[in-house]
Amino acid sequence: MNIPVDLKYSREHEWVRAEGGRASIGITDHAQHALGDIVFVELPEPGAEFGAGEAFAVVESVKAASDVYSPVSGKITEVNEQLAASPELVNSDPYGSWFVVVELSDPGEFDSLLSAEEYGKLCKEE
Question: Measured between alpha carbons, how far is 102 from 109 in angstroms, rounded to an integer?
Answer without folding.
Answer: 13
